[in-house]
Amino acid sequence: MAQTLGPVAALLLGVFFLVTGSGLQNTLLPLRGAFEGFSAINLGILGSSYYLGFVTGCLAVPHLVRRSGHIRAFAALTAGVVATMLAHPIFVEPYFWFVMRAITGFCFAGLYLVIESWLNDRATNQTRGFVMSAYVMVDYAALTAGQMMITLYPVRSFELFALAAILFSLATLPVVISSSGQPAPIETARIRLPRLFRAAPVAMVGCFVIGLTNGSLWSLGPIFGIGSGLTSDGAATFMSAIVVAGAIAQWPVGFFSDRMDRRRILGALMVGAMLASLALGALQFGLVGLSVLGLVFGALAMPAYSLAAAHAYDLTPASDAVETAAGLLLLYGIGSVVGPAAASFGMQHYGPGALFFFMAGCYALLLLFVVWRMCLGDRRPALKPPAMVMEEGAACVPTGTVPAPDGEAEEAARQAPPVKLSSRLFKGSARPRGPGEPPFPGDQDGRSDGA
Q: Where is this region: Disordered (predicted)?
Protein backbone atom coordinates (compact mmCIF):
# COMPACT_ATOMS: atom_id res chain seq x y z
CA MET A 1 0.00 0.00 0.00
CA ALA A 2 2.72 2.48 1.01
CA GLN A 3 4.69 1.64 -2.12
CA THR A 4 1.65 2.27 -4.29
CA LEU A 5 0.49 5.52 -2.66
CA GLY A 6 3.88 6.96 -1.68
CA PRO A 7 4.53 8.74 -5.01
CA VAL A 8 1.16 10.54 -4.78
CA ALA A 9 0.97 11.15 -1.01
CA ALA A 10 1.65 14.90 -1.27
CA LEU A 11 -0.93 15.23 -4.03
CA LEU A 12 -3.54 13.39 -1.94
CA LEU A 13 -2.83 15.69 1.01
CA GLY A 14 -3.42 18.68 -1.26
CA VAL A 15 -6.64 17.04 -2.45
CA PHE A 16 -7.79 16.71 1.17
CA PHE A 17 -7.42 20.44 1.88
CA LEU A 18 -8.92 21.39 -1.49
CA VAL A 19 -11.98 19.19 -1.20
CA THR A 20 -12.55 20.08 2.47
CA GLY A 21 -12.91 23.69 1.38
CA SER A 22 -15.11 22.58 -1.52
CA GLY A 23 -17.38 20.58 0.79
CA LEU A 24 -17.83 23.60 3.05
CA GLN A 25 -18.45 25.85 0.04
CA ASN A 26 -20.96 23.48 -1.60
CA THR A 27 -23.02 23.27 1.59
CA LEU A 28 -22.68 26.93 2.56
CA LEU A 29 -23.70 28.59 -0.70
CA PRO A 30 -27.15 26.99 -1.22
CA LEU A 31 -28.00 27.39 2.47
CA ARG A 32 -26.89 31.03 2.51
CA GLY A 33 -28.76 31.59 -0.76
CA ALA A 34 -31.94 30.08 0.73
CA PHE A 35 -31.64 32.34 3.80
CA GLU A 36 -31.17 35.34 1.48
CA GLY A 37 -34.40 34.51 -0.35
CA PHE A 38 -33.03 32.87 -3.53
CA SER A 39 -35.73 30.80 -5.26
CA ALA A 40 -35.33 27.06 -5.94
CA ILE A 41 -34.79 27.90 -9.61
CA ASN A 42 -32.03 30.36 -8.71
CA LEU A 43 -30.37 27.75 -6.52
CA GLY A 44 -30.56 25.23 -9.37
CA ILE A 45 -29.03 27.77 -11.77
CA LEU A 46 -26.32 28.42 -9.18
CA GLY A 47 -25.35 24.75 -9.35
CA SER A 48 -25.56 24.71 -13.15
CA SER A 49 -23.39 27.84 -13.35
CA TYR A 50 -20.62 26.02 -11.52
CA TYR A 51 -20.74 23.17 -14.00
CA LEU A 52 -21.01 25.50 -16.99
CA GLY A 53 -17.66 26.91 -15.91
CA PHE A 54 -16.51 23.34 -15.28
CA VAL A 55 -17.23 22.39 -18.90
CA THR A 56 -15.39 25.46 -20.18
CA GLY A 57 -12.45 24.60 -17.97
CA CYS A 58 -12.27 21.07 -19.37
CA LEU A 59 -11.83 22.57 -22.84
CA ALA A 60 -9.37 25.33 -21.93
CA VAL A 61 -7.24 24.06 -19.06
CA PRO A 62 -5.38 21.33 -21.01
CA HIS A 63 -3.66 24.16 -22.89
CA LEU A 64 -2.65 25.73 -19.56
CA VAL A 65 -1.24 22.42 -18.32
CA ARG A 66 0.65 21.96 -21.58
CA ARG A 67 2.21 25.42 -21.29
CA SER A 68 2.84 25.66 -17.54
CA GLY A 69 3.09 22.11 -16.24
CA HIS A 70 0.99 20.34 -13.63
CA ILE A 71 2.35 22.05 -10.49
CA ARG A 72 2.14 25.65 -11.70
CA ALA A 73 -1.31 25.07 -13.17
CA PHE A 74 -2.47 23.63 -9.84
CA ALA A 75 -1.19 26.66 -7.91
CA ALA A 76 -2.69 29.20 -10.33
CA LEU A 77 -6.12 27.58 -10.38
CA THR A 78 -6.20 27.30 -6.59
CA ALA A 79 -5.51 31.04 -6.33
CA GLY A 80 -8.55 31.65 -8.55
CA VAL A 81 -10.75 29.52 -6.26
CA VAL A 82 -9.60 31.50 -3.18
CA ALA A 83 -10.42 34.84 -4.84
CA THR A 84 -13.93 33.83 -5.90
CA MET A 85 -14.70 32.31 -2.50
CA LEU A 86 -13.96 35.60 -0.74
CA ALA A 87 -16.01 37.56 -3.29
CA HIS A 88 -19.31 35.79 -2.47
CA PRO A 89 -20.08 37.49 0.87
CA ILE A 90 -19.19 40.93 -0.51
CA PHE A 91 -22.00 40.94 -3.11
CA VAL A 92 -24.90 38.70 -2.04
CA GLU A 93 -26.89 38.82 -5.27
CA PRO A 94 -27.94 35.87 -7.50
CA TYR A 95 -26.46 37.04 -10.81
CA PHE A 96 -23.10 37.91 -9.25
CA TRP A 97 -23.01 34.51 -7.57
CA PHE A 98 -23.78 32.84 -10.92
CA VAL A 99 -20.63 34.42 -12.39
CA MET A 100 -18.50 33.57 -9.35
CA ARG A 101 -19.68 29.97 -9.40
CA ALA A 102 -18.86 29.70 -13.10
CA ILE A 103 -15.31 30.92 -12.42
CA THR A 104 -15.01 28.48 -9.52
CA GLY A 105 -16.18 25.64 -11.76
CA PHE A 106 -13.59 26.61 -14.40
CA CYS A 107 -10.82 26.42 -11.80
CA PHE A 108 -12.00 23.14 -10.29
CA ALA A 109 -12.19 21.50 -13.72
CA GLY A 110 -8.51 22.25 -14.15
CA LEU A 111 -7.66 21.10 -10.64
CA TYR A 112 -9.42 17.77 -11.09
CA LEU A 113 -7.84 17.34 -14.51
CA VAL A 114 -4.37 17.86 -13.03
CA ILE A 115 -5.09 15.57 -10.07
CA GLU A 116 -6.60 12.67 -12.02
CA SER A 117 -4.06 12.71 -14.85
CA TRP A 118 -1.26 12.87 -12.26
CA LEU A 119 -2.67 9.91 -10.33
CA ASN A 120 -3.09 7.80 -13.44
CA ASP A 121 0.42 8.63 -14.60
CA ARG A 122 1.60 6.90 -11.41
CA ALA A 123 -0.79 3.92 -11.62
CA THR A 124 -0.90 0.71 -13.65
CA ASN A 125 -3.86 -1.43 -14.65
CA GLN A 126 -3.00 -3.68 -11.70
CA THR A 127 -3.20 -0.83 -9.15
CA ARG A 128 -5.55 1.68 -10.81
CA GLY A 129 -8.69 0.58 -8.98
CA PHE A 130 -6.87 0.86 -5.64
CA VAL A 131 -5.31 4.24 -6.44
CA MET A 132 -8.58 5.72 -7.70
CA SER A 133 -10.42 4.31 -4.68
CA ALA A 134 -7.85 5.86 -2.32
CA TYR A 135 -8.27 9.18 -4.14
CA VAL A 136 -12.05 9.07 -3.89
CA MET A 137 -11.88 7.98 -0.23
CA VAL A 138 -9.76 11.05 0.51
CA ASP A 139 -12.15 13.12 -1.58
CA TYR A 140 -15.24 11.94 0.29
CA ALA A 141 -13.62 12.09 3.73
CA ALA A 142 -12.68 15.70 2.98
CA LEU A 143 -16.20 16.45 1.74
CA THR A 144 -17.60 15.12 4.99
CA ALA A 145 -15.24 17.24 7.07
CA GLY A 146 -16.08 20.32 5.00
CA GLN A 147 -19.82 19.79 5.22
CA MET A 148 -19.71 19.40 9.00
CA MET A 149 -17.80 22.69 9.32
CA ILE A 150 -21.06 24.44 8.46
CA THR A 151 -21.95 24.01 12.16
CA LEU A 152 -18.94 26.02 13.39
CA TYR A 153 -20.37 29.47 12.63
CA PRO A 154 -23.74 30.95 11.61
CA VAL A 155 -24.53 30.58 7.89
CA ARG A 156 -24.95 34.35 7.59
CA SER A 157 -21.47 35.05 8.97
CA PHE A 158 -18.26 35.84 7.08
CA GLU A 159 -16.18 33.32 9.04
CA LEU A 160 -17.32 30.30 7.01
CA PHE A 161 -16.29 31.96 3.74
CA ALA A 162 -12.90 32.84 5.22
CA LEU A 163 -12.41 29.31 6.54
CA ALA A 164 -13.07 27.82 3.10
CA ALA A 165 -10.57 30.26 1.55
CA ILE A 166 -7.93 29.23 4.10
CA LEU A 167 -8.42 25.56 3.28
CA PHE A 168 -8.10 26.24 -0.45
CA SER A 169 -4.84 28.12 0.18
CA LEU A 170 -3.39 25.24 2.21
CA ALA A 171 -4.01 22.85 -0.69
CA THR A 172 -1.11 24.30 -2.68
CA LEU A 173 1.54 23.76 0.00
CA PRO A 174 2.12 19.98 -0.15
CA VAL A 175 1.91 19.95 -3.95
CA VAL A 176 4.36 22.82 -4.51
CA ILE A 177 7.00 21.83 -1.94
CA SER A 178 6.88 18.07 -2.55
CA SER A 179 10.03 16.39 -3.91
CA SER A 180 7.91 13.89 -5.87
CA GLY A 181 8.21 14.50 -9.59
CA GLN A 182 5.27 15.69 -11.66
CA PRO A 183 4.16 13.94 -14.85
CA ALA A 184 6.01 14.68 -18.07
CA PRO A 185 4.68 17.68 -20.05
CA ILE A 186 1.84 16.76 -22.35
CA GLU A 187 2.44 17.02 -26.09
CA THR A 188 -1.09 17.86 -27.21
CA ALA A 189 -4.17 19.39 -25.61
CA ARG A 190 -6.84 17.80 -27.79
CA ILE A 191 -10.08 16.30 -26.54
CA ARG A 192 -11.35 13.72 -29.05
CA LEU A 193 -14.64 12.54 -27.62
CA PRO A 194 -15.54 10.21 -30.53
CA ARG A 195 -12.19 8.43 -30.10
CA LEU A 196 -12.72 8.09 -26.36
CA PHE A 197 -16.26 6.85 -26.89
CA ARG A 198 -15.07 4.15 -29.28
CA ALA A 199 -12.49 3.01 -26.72
CA ALA A 200 -14.72 3.02 -23.61
CA PRO A 201 -18.41 3.76 -24.31
CA VAL A 202 -19.63 2.60 -20.89
CA ALA A 203 -17.17 4.91 -19.13
CA MET A 204 -18.11 7.91 -21.24
CA VAL A 205 -21.88 7.48 -20.90
CA GLY A 206 -21.38 6.61 -17.24
CA CYS A 207 -19.51 9.85 -16.50
CA PHE A 208 -22.25 11.89 -18.19
CA VAL A 209 -25.06 10.20 -16.24
CA ILE A 210 -23.10 10.38 -12.98
CA GLY A 211 -22.68 14.09 -13.69
CA LEU A 212 -26.47 14.42 -13.96
CA THR A 213 -26.95 12.79 -10.56
CA ASN A 214 -23.95 14.05 -8.59
CA GLY A 215 -24.36 17.61 -9.84
CA SER A 216 -27.98 17.55 -8.68
CA LEU A 217 -27.06 16.02 -5.34
CA TRP A 218 -24.31 18.50 -4.47
CA SER A 219 -26.35 21.50 -5.62
CA LEU A 220 -29.75 20.55 -4.21
CA GLY A 221 -29.17 17.87 -1.56
CA PRO A 222 -29.12 20.43 1.30
CA ILE A 223 -32.34 21.97 -0.06
CA PHE A 224 -33.93 18.48 -0.10
CA GLY A 225 -32.98 18.13 3.56
CA ILE A 226 -34.52 21.48 4.53
CA GLY A 227 -37.62 20.71 2.44
CA SER A 228 -37.95 17.41 4.33
CA GLY A 229 -38.11 19.26 7.65
CA LEU A 230 -34.44 19.21 8.69
CA THR A 231 -32.51 22.15 10.09
CA SER A 232 -29.36 23.40 8.36
CA ASP A 233 -27.29 21.24 10.73
CA GLY A 234 -29.56 18.27 9.97
CA ALA A 235 -29.15 18.82 6.22
CA ALA A 236 -25.36 18.83 6.68
CA THR A 237 -25.61 15.58 8.67
CA PHE A 238 -27.71 13.96 5.93
CA MET A 239 -25.23 14.97 3.23
CA SER A 240 -22.33 13.80 5.37
CA ALA A 241 -23.96 10.38 5.81
CA ILE A 242 -24.04 10.00 2.03
CA VAL A 243 -20.42 10.99 1.68
CA VAL A 244 -19.14 8.83 4.57
CA ALA A 245 -20.81 5.74 3.16
CA GLY A 246 -19.43 6.53 -0.28
CA ALA A 247 -15.92 6.82 1.12
CA ILE A 248 -16.16 3.52 3.02
CA ALA A 249 -17.51 1.69 -0.03
CA GLN A 250 -14.62 2.81 -2.25
CA TRP A 251 -12.15 0.23 -0.98
CA PRO A 252 -14.21 -2.94 -1.55
CA VAL A 253 -15.47 -1.63 -4.89
CA GLY A 254 -11.92 -0.81 -6.03
CA PHE A 255 -10.63 -4.16 -4.75
CA PHE A 256 -13.17 -6.21 -6.69
CA SER A 257 -13.00 -4.01 -9.79
CA ASP A 258 -9.28 -4.83 -10.14
CA ARG A 259 -10.21 -8.51 -10.31
CA MET A 260 -13.29 -8.66 -12.53
CA ASP A 261 -15.10 -6.77 -15.26
CA ARG A 262 -15.67 -3.24 -13.94
CA ARG A 263 -18.89 -2.98 -15.95
CA ARG A 264 -20.50 -5.79 -13.97
CA ILE A 265 -19.83 -3.98 -10.72
CA LEU A 266 -21.10 -0.69 -12.18
CA GLY A 267 -24.35 -2.35 -13.25
CA ALA A 268 -24.86 -3.88 -9.80
CA LEU A 269 -24.27 -0.50 -8.14
CA MET A 270 -26.82 1.13 -10.43
CA VAL A 271 -29.52 -1.34 -9.38
CA GLY A 272 -28.96 -0.54 -5.70
CA ALA A 273 -28.62 3.22 -6.24
CA MET A 274 -31.89 3.30 -8.19
CA LEU A 275 -33.80 1.51 -5.41
CA ALA A 276 -32.26 3.70 -2.70
CA SER A 277 -33.17 6.84 -4.66
CA LEU A 278 -36.77 5.73 -4.99
CA ALA A 279 -36.95 5.14 -1.24
CA LEU A 280 -35.51 8.59 -0.46
CA GLY A 281 -37.95 10.27 -2.83
CA ALA A 282 -41.06 8.40 -1.73
CA LEU A 283 -40.70 7.82 2.03
CA GLN A 284 -41.02 10.40 4.78
CA PHE A 285 -38.49 10.16 7.61
CA GLY A 286 -36.87 12.33 10.24
CA LEU A 287 -33.14 12.94 10.57
CA VAL A 288 -32.27 9.40 11.70
CA GLY A 289 -34.28 7.68 8.96
CA LEU A 290 -32.97 9.97 6.23
CA SER A 291 -29.40 9.51 7.45
CA VAL A 292 -29.73 5.71 7.38
CA LEU A 293 -31.14 5.82 3.85
CA GLY A 294 -28.39 8.29 2.97
CA LEU A 295 -25.78 5.78 4.12
CA VAL A 296 -27.26 3.10 1.87
CA PHE A 297 -27.56 5.47 -1.07
CA GLY A 298 -24.01 6.81 -0.67
CA ALA A 299 -22.45 3.33 -0.51
CA LEU A 300 -24.14 2.38 -3.79
CA ALA A 301 -24.02 5.61 -5.79
CA MET A 302 -20.83 7.40 -4.81
CA PRO A 303 -18.22 4.83 -6.05
CA ALA A 304 -19.65 4.94 -9.58
CA TYR A 305 -17.46 7.76 -10.94
CA SER A 306 -14.13 6.26 -9.90
CA LEU A 307 -15.26 2.92 -11.33
CA ALA A 308 -16.24 4.41 -14.68
CA ALA A 309 -13.04 6.47 -14.83
CA ALA A 310 -10.82 3.45 -14.06
CA HIS A 311 -12.55 1.54 -16.86
CA ALA A 312 -11.74 4.36 -19.29
CA TYR A 313 -8.08 4.54 -18.26
CA ASP A 314 -7.80 0.77 -18.71
CA LEU A 315 -8.67 1.14 -22.38
CA THR A 316 -6.68 4.25 -23.36
CA PRO A 317 -2.91 4.77 -23.72
CA ALA A 318 -0.94 6.17 -20.80
CA SER A 319 0.33 8.98 -23.03
CA ASP A 320 -3.26 10.22 -23.37
CA ALA A 321 -3.94 10.47 -19.62
CA VAL A 322 -4.61 14.23 -19.71
CA GLU A 323 -6.85 13.91 -22.77
CA THR A 324 -8.77 11.04 -21.16
CA ALA A 325 -9.17 12.94 -17.88
CA ALA A 326 -10.35 16.03 -19.75
CA GLY A 327 -12.86 14.01 -21.77
CA LEU A 328 -14.30 12.28 -18.72
CA LEU A 329 -14.54 15.51 -16.76
CA LEU A 330 -16.07 17.30 -19.75
CA LEU A 331 -18.90 14.79 -19.99
CA TYR A 332 -19.30 14.81 -16.21
CA GLY A 333 -19.49 18.60 -16.32
CA ILE A 334 -22.05 18.66 -19.16
CA GLY A 335 -24.23 16.28 -17.17
CA SER A 336 -23.80 18.45 -14.09
CA VAL A 337 -24.97 21.54 -16.00
CA VAL A 338 -28.17 19.81 -17.08
CA GLY A 339 -28.85 17.87 -13.88
CA PRO A 340 -29.38 20.64 -11.29
CA ALA A 341 -31.54 22.71 -13.65
CA ALA A 342 -33.78 19.72 -14.48
CA ALA A 343 -33.99 18.52 -10.88
CA SER A 344 -34.73 22.00 -9.52
CA PHE A 345 -37.60 22.35 -11.99
CA GLY A 346 -39.07 19.10 -10.67
CA MET A 347 -38.57 20.18 -7.06
CA GLN A 348 -40.27 23.52 -7.75
CA HIS A 349 -43.39 21.79 -9.08
CA TYR A 350 -43.50 18.40 -7.30
CA GLY A 351 -41.68 18.92 -4.02
CA PRO A 352 -38.24 17.97 -2.64
CA GLY A 353 -38.67 14.24 -3.34
CA ALA A 354 -38.49 14.96 -7.08
CA LEU A 355 -34.70 15.28 -6.69
CA PHE A 356 -34.26 11.58 -5.95
CA PHE A 357 -36.93 10.47 -8.44
CA PHE A 358 -34.91 12.28 -11.11
CA MET A 359 -31.75 10.53 -9.95
CA ALA A 360 -33.47 7.12 -9.95
CA GLY A 361 -34.45 7.63 -13.58
CA CYS A 362 -30.85 8.49 -14.49
CA TYR A 363 -29.49 5.38 -12.77
CA ALA A 364 -32.05 3.21 -14.58
CA LEU A 365 -30.95 4.58 -17.98
CA LEU A 366 -27.27 3.96 -17.21
CA LEU A 367 -28.07 0.42 -16.06
CA LEU A 368 -29.84 -0.29 -19.35
CA PHE A 369 -26.87 1.02 -21.34
CA VAL A 370 -24.38 -1.09 -19.37
CA VAL A 371 -26.49 -4.22 -19.87
CA TRP A 372 -26.89 -3.47 -23.58
CA ARG A 373 -23.14 -2.97 -24.09
CA MET A 374 -22.30 -6.17 -22.24
CA CYS A 375 -24.99 -8.41 -23.72
CA LEU A 376 -25.58 -7.05 -27.22
CA GLY A 377 -23.40 -4.19 -28.32
CA ASP A 378 -19.97 -5.05 -26.94
CA ARG A 379 -18.56 -8.49 -27.73
CA ARG A 380 -15.05 -7.63 -26.61
CA PRO A 381 -13.73 -9.59 -23.64
CA ALA A 382 -13.14 -7.51 -20.55
CA LEU A 383 -9.67 -6.01 -20.43
CA LYS A 384 -8.08 -7.56 -17.36
CA PRO A 385 -5.04 -5.92 -15.81
CA PRO A 386 -2.62 -8.90 -15.77
CA ALA A 387 -3.10 -9.43 -19.49
CA MET A 388 -2.22 -5.96 -20.66
CA VAL A 389 0.42 -4.50 -18.35
CA MET A 390 3.45 -3.26 -20.30
CA GLU A 391 6.65 -1.70 -19.13
CA GLU A 392 7.43 1.92 -20.04
CA GLY A 393 8.46 2.09 -23.68
CA ALA A 394 7.76 -1.58 -24.39
CA ALA A 395 6.23 -2.47 -27.72
CA CYS A 396 2.60 -3.54 -27.60
CA VAL A 397 3.09 -7.13 -28.76
CA PRO A 398 1.94 -10.40 -27.23
CA THR A 399 4.31 -12.45 -25.11
CA GLY A 400 6.08 -15.15 -27.08
CA THR A 401 5.54 -13.53 -30.49
CA VAL A 402 7.29 -15.40 -33.33
CA PRO A 403 8.49 -13.92 -36.64
CA ALA A 404 5.83 -13.45 -39.28
CA PRO A 405 5.61 -16.42 -41.70
CA ASP A 406 6.89 -16.15 -45.22
CA GLY A 407 6.75 -18.24 -48.37
CA GLU A 408 4.69 -21.41 -48.03
CA ALA A 409 4.04 -20.82 -44.37
CA GLU A 410 2.55 -17.39 -45.15
CA GLU A 411 0.28 -18.86 -47.82
CA ALA A 412 -0.88 -21.57 -45.42
CA ALA A 413 -1.59 -18.98 -42.78
CA ARG A 414 -3.76 -16.98 -45.19
CA GLN A 415 -5.78 -20.05 -46.16
CA ALA A 416 -6.22 -21.36 -42.63
CA PRO A 417 -9.73 -21.00 -41.22
CA PRO A 418 -10.13 -18.43 -38.47
CA VAL A 419 -9.94 -19.79 -34.96
CA LYS A 420 -12.04 -18.38 -32.17
CA LEU A 421 -9.89 -17.96 -29.08
CA SER A 422 -11.27 -17.65 -25.59
CA SER A 423 -9.81 -14.90 -23.51
CA ARG A 424 -9.52 -17.45 -20.70
CA LEU A 425 -6.74 -19.21 -22.58
CA PHE A 426 -4.62 -16.09 -22.42
CA LYS A 427 -4.99 -15.24 -18.79
CA GLY A 428 -1.73 -13.62 -17.77
CA SER A 429 -0.62 -12.85 -21.34
CA ALA A 430 -1.67 -10.42 -24.04
CA ARG A 431 -4.28 -11.52 -26.57
CA PRO A 432 -2.52 -12.56 -29.83
CA ARG A 433 -3.32 -11.13 -33.26
CA GLY A 434 -3.26 -13.03 -36.51
CA PRO A 435 -1.18 -11.95 -39.53
CA GLY A 436 -2.54 -8.76 -41.03
CA GLU A 437 -5.23 -8.43 -38.38
CA PRO A 438 -5.80 -4.84 -37.16
CA PRO A 439 -5.25 -4.00 -33.49
CA PHE A 440 -7.98 -4.89 -31.05
CA PRO A 441 -9.98 -2.07 -29.50
CA GLY A 442 -8.28 -2.67 -26.16
CA ASP A 443 -4.70 -2.68 -27.53
CA GLN A 444 -2.60 0.23 -26.33
CA ASP A 445 0.59 1.89 -27.39
CA GLY A 446 3.50 1.90 -24.97
CA ARG A 447 2.79 1.28 -21.30
CA SER A 448 -0.64 -0.22 -20.70
CA ASP A 449 -1.41 1.64 -17.49
CA GLY A 450 -4.01 3.88 -18.83
CA ALA A 451 -11.39 7.93 -14.48
A: 400-451
